[in-house]
Amino acid sequence: MSEPWSSLPTPLADDVASCWDSVFPEGVPGWLTSKAGQSEETIAGAVARSVFVRQVLERYPEHVQIMVQAHPLTEPTTPEFLTQRWQDYLGPVNDESSLHSALRQFRREVQFRIIWRDLLRWADLAETVAATSAFADTCIEGALHWLYQDACEQSGTPYGPDPVTGEDAPQRMVVLGMGKLGGRELNVSSDIDLIFAFPDKGETRGGRRSVDNQTFFIRLGQRLIQALDQITADGFVFRVDMRLRPYGQSGALALSFAALEAYYQDQGRDWERYAMVKARVVAGDQAAGKVLMETLRPFVYRKYIDFSAFESLRSMKAMIGREVRRKGLENNIKLGSGGIREIEFVVQAFQLIRGGRDRELQQRELLVILKELEELELLPPNVVKELKEAYVFLRNLEHALQGMADKQTQLLPEDDLNKARVALIMGFDDWQSCESALEAHRQRVATHFANIIATEDDDEEGAGALEEGWQELWLAELDEEASVRWLADHGYEDAPGSYTLLRELRENRTVQTLQTQGRRRLNQFMPMLLDALTQVDNPSETLSRVLQLVEAILRRTAYMVLLLENPGACTQLVSLCSESPWIAQQLAETPLLLDELLNAESLYHPPAKAELQDDLRQQMLRIPFEDLEEQMESLRHFKKAHLLRLAASELKGTLPLMKVSDYLTWLAEVVLDHVVNVAFSNLVSRHGYPKRADGSVCETDFAIIGYGKLGGIELGYTSDLDLVFVHGADPELATDGEKSIDNAVFYTRLGQRIVHILNTQTPSGLLYEVDMRLRPSGNSGLLVSTLHAFEKYQRSEAWTWEHQALARARGVAGCRETLEAFESIRHDILCQSRNREKLRQEVVDMREKMRTSLGTPESRQQDVFHIKHDTGGIVDIEFLVQYLMLANCADHPELTQWSDNIRQMEALGQVGVMSVADTEKLRDVFIALRSTIHRRALQNLNSEVEAGNFPGERDYVRRLWQDIMIG
């Protein structure tokens, strides 16, 4: 008699044989063969296909027996069954902990059912996604219903105008499901994107203490997320992602209908229109939710054919390409070329462009929309057929990848055992056959995607034929003498040196070992580059800079294709490298920045702060907070891309110095805000939220204070960040999670994680170098202080130089309430009455110490002037301003409004502490010195210049210092 696994492919048969006795130590039970399938061979096939199925059978046999007796695995998992089955699990629930346990046990059963039927192909794609989506709906609704009743008992019932009748009535939450959940197309192991809303403002009634409706629903939303997302001994239910809500992670967790409508009307972005195409009320007040969806419909679907959407579609196409290149996603069947997202993108493009006119397109399910596109003759039948077949194949493959281990992934396997599993699940004899079918589908999708979402660049041909001499030069068809003469005749200022560089590149070992395609691309690219270099004033010098990049991308010739297909980008590359070796170095270190050169308009016009926030939100949207490594890499790329834009704008003169510093500071603030959210979310998932004295949980109660150049809005391209961390929570209380820790420990770990994200060296380098020495008690002090401890230290222990530093401090990221509390403390400290003579002497003494340790030694002062540290330099100006601030804030409290030198100077003039003429002159000197430092940074030069520079400016600062500080 053969074994149950004997018909399986060899690696899988061996795998099942090795685990069979541990899964079924007493043999396969009769209840399983009768309820789960027709034979032991079927069961062996399920064990072969999924490690998850194997583990559930091994660890929870009693639970499996109960579940299969309640409903055979041979029967579909319907919404009606799920609703009824949830009631069985809900019966014993009597507190929040048992609710969490019931939800997770319910998940184990339903996940087992869905994966079993899907991987054995007893269910088609439609059944699998419908069952998974219905399961999510049931869990969200079940948890919300129980938690809402419990919250009403504690805080009273929220009341306000009913959105349907307008009458005063109890209010309930509306939960919008986005993405695949909204479209009822959820994966078997997926996160869920949610937005929480409530009808209107008002207050609770009947509780121990009334709270406003928004507070009630925010707390309810936090508890709902924990019920679904928190990992306990029983696992979790769904990973919950709330970043699609207005303002992303920094926005309120729950908003009223009016606030949602106002946001989307006034600030809604194109990508948020895409997200809203799938939005659906998945739980809560369905009648109120229907009213909300009607109010939001005009934001999603325009009344006219919306051809303006094409520009954003092109931008999104470019973003897809960048993501694929950045992450190396060729093996990702969702995000890679020809993957699931390209099909979704094609369909949503038509929905947004024509959905306002053709209401048939205002549906959510992708396959339904594809059929409508054919009937409306918007896509040819053969295209629809190929996209549909590819979509079904790719989604089934996605479920195969995820069902093997109940893990959210879209990456193809690399080991032979999992390749064999996937091939078996997909119905192929071997992996090669499966891979060939996959490649055929992906090629067809990629072709249709490129044809439908074409860009102007895709349709343009090259910039014309190059002179043949460049080709002959690069391929060494000319001898050395002729090559040097050719380069000299075309403007190369150091023709022999350039020839030597090219010869060394040709003889480079990496070039010698390139594959055929890579060598062909290099041979196309180099002549174009050499010709483009003739358009700048210093082609030889620029060539030496650009070759750093060429060497960096020899093994990644897709970047050469990008430049070949976009001659304008090649022109920008040459121009910027000609003007700045710093930019050349950045591009060589991070070739992905070449994408920024594709659009000259955005390259030379960097975004405002709100656009920076939106750009970061969009880029980080699909990266889970728990994937810290990918978060860190993406943040580093985001920063580098925007630094390149700023440097390009400064070099081209489209941004003056003051604006450059503004943008650099905004960039740091946007990054810091996101880092706080990532670190906070990461800790909350482990330990729960920090509690407040009134029993409520904190949004964060944490703030980052920027000192120095960050506080003074004067960041440079390579500036580090002087930071201080404070929080407003009670350190004696603890978090509300199952692995509870003291608030003080929570915030210390939060600070440590923030520093780790910013300061760790990754393949993409540092995000920011962080200096925490300005915190109370310096390096010997706590990493994170309470506001109370911070204020106490500033009042009783801080040195004068620490109050000088406080003059340039301001809150830059974190909780708004905590930031406001810090600003109040700063104002009070700066406005303290001081002994002016003592203050003056202490400032002078500190300046002398700094000059001695950091300034130019006397032996070199005849030759060198250090713009920042030497007499008459930037630090003298900063100390003058700080002294005048500390000496006069008590009499002029309005001086504390600003933290930057420029506006502090202006304010000192306005209140009469300095003459307006002096403040204007000092301002001009300060800007001139800082501009020089900026320009030198872009040339990879330090802050030292020849001693004869800035004679008038230095004399003026010396005189002012003498008049004010020495007397």
Q: Top keywords for this entry?
A:
967 residues; Beta Polymerase, domain 2; Four Helix Bundle (Hemerythrin (Met), subunit A); five-stranded mixed β-sheet; 43 helices
Kindly state the number of beta strands: 15
Tell me the helix content: 55-70%
Q: Could you name the CATH topology of the largest domain? A: Beta Polymerase, domain 2
What is the 3D form? globular
Any chance you could write out the topology, listing elements then pairs?
Blueprint: H1 10-23, H2 30-36, H3 40-49, H4 51-59, H5 61-70, H6 79-90, H7 96-119, H8 125-155, E1 156-161, E2 168-170, E3 174-178, H9 179-182, E4 192-198, E5 204-206, H10 213-229, E6 240-241, E7 254-256, H11 257-267, H12 270-277, E8 280-284, H13 286-300, H14 309-327, H15 340-354, H16 366-375, H17 381-403, H18 416-426, H19 431-452, H20 456-459, H21 468-474, H22 480-489, H23 495-506, H24 509-512, H25 516-532, H26 539-552, H27 558-565, H28 567-579, H29 581-589, H30 600-603, H31 609-620, H32 628-652, H33 657-687, E9 702-707, H34 708-711, E10 721-727, H35 743-759, E11 770-771, E12 784-786, H36 787-796, H37 800-807, E13 810-814, H38 816-830, H39 836-854, E14 864-866, H40 874-888, H41 901-910, H42 916-938, E15 944-946, H43 951-966
Parallel strand pairs: 4-6, 4-7, 10-11, 10-12
Antiparallel strand pairs: 1-2, 1-5, 3-4, 3-8, 9-10, 9-13, 14-15
Helix pairs in contact: 1-3, 2-5, 3-4, 6-7, 6-8, 7-8, 7-17, 8-10, 11-13, 15-16, 15-19, 16-17, 17-18, 17-19, 21-25, 22-23, 23-26, 25-27, 26-28, 26-29, 27-28, 28-29, 31-33, 32-33, 33-35, 36-38, 37-40, 39-40, 40-41, 41-42
InterPro entries: GlnE, GlnE_rpt_dom, NT_sf, PII_UdlTrfase/GS_AdlTrfase
Cofactor: Mg(2+)
Keywords: ATP-binding, Magnesium, Multifunctional enzyme, Nucleotide-binding, Nucleotidyltransferase, Transferase
